[in-house]
Amino acid sequence: MQGERVSIWSGSTQGNTDFSHVLSLDIGGTFLKAGVVQRDGRLAANPLRVPTPSPATPDAVLVELRSMIAELPSFERVAVGFPGSVRNAKIATAPNLGTEFWCNYPLAETLATELQRPVQLVNDAVLHGFGCIVGKGSECILTLGTGMGCALFVAGSLFHGLELGQHYAMAGLNYDQLVGKRALEDLGLEEWNRRVAFAVRAVDILTNCDRIVIGGGNAKRVSGYLPDHVSIALETSNFSGGARLWRSLVEGPS
Question: What distance in Å separates the CA atoms of residue 48 and residue 50, rounded to the nearest whole number?
Answer without folding.
Answer: 7
